[in-house]
Amino acid sequence: MRIEKNEFFIQWLVDNNITSRESAVSYDSYVRNAFSYIAKLQALDTNTIEEIINILSENGIAKNIKKSPKTILNYLSGLRAYGEFLNDTTEINGAIFPGENIEILTQLSSTEEQVYTYNTLYKNFAFRLITQDRFYDNIYFPISLIKQLFYKTNNKARFDRILKSMINSINIYLSEKDVILFEDISELKIKDKTVSVVCANNNLVIYTPTNTSRLEPFLVDKLSDVSIDHIIPQYTIMQELKDDLPEFKKLTEILKQSATKVSNRPTLAAYKNKFGLDSILQSIDLDQLENELRLVVRPKNLRLMNRSLNTSKGKK
Asked: Which residues belong to any copy of the Core-binding (CB) domain (predicted)?
């Protein structure tokens, strides 16, 4: 199936200061080539994009599908950016893409053992975290928008440092008493449903926390079943700190009082499509917003958890 060049995606990359025009055209090509090989139809859903990313992130997948490692890296770069694009433009995607669900060729995945390197996991986890906007009643946590504000103003490194601190301090449980951090591992493996990590050249079976604070064997089928959980829910943190978050409050009011009345991800996408970021940038103090973001995303408040257990929790 021939997939046409996506000018909307290309322009989005340029407008958000993610790549140059030349690189944006390359990213679009990577995505189209990946879709042509991995799937029968284009996707509308970031969860589906994540599934494709996870398959292409496995060690050895390049050999399985007879592509060079460089080609796989290109596919992944394009798809992660495309996932952000979908997250950012949900409101207008109906006019761009077919509405059918994607059919992923999952048989390309290695079923015996899935192995993911630190670098690949880092990028995949970053994609997850920056597409998890939260719209609480009295204060918003629009992380995708916050990233764009920093990138748009050539402050990419400042945002990326905060994101790196979040990811590297993810807790991984070896036992009730033994906890390592994400930055300590070199690989994560899934074999016979059991999740393990490589730390200091040792393969260590890990455990998942539960809603009763006990640990259980970490048994999953695939990487998307490995969830990043907040130990203290994001909602609780935002409520406890709301009086110390003037820029978050200001951002919330701007979005709530706009003509689009932002209250969820589709309306946030509609707001940005209609108004752009300039009016927000004129109203927000980025230095203060950075300080508040560091306060909100406190270190070591994330942990790896079985998604089936995580989904049964309350407000996050």
From this structure: 7-87
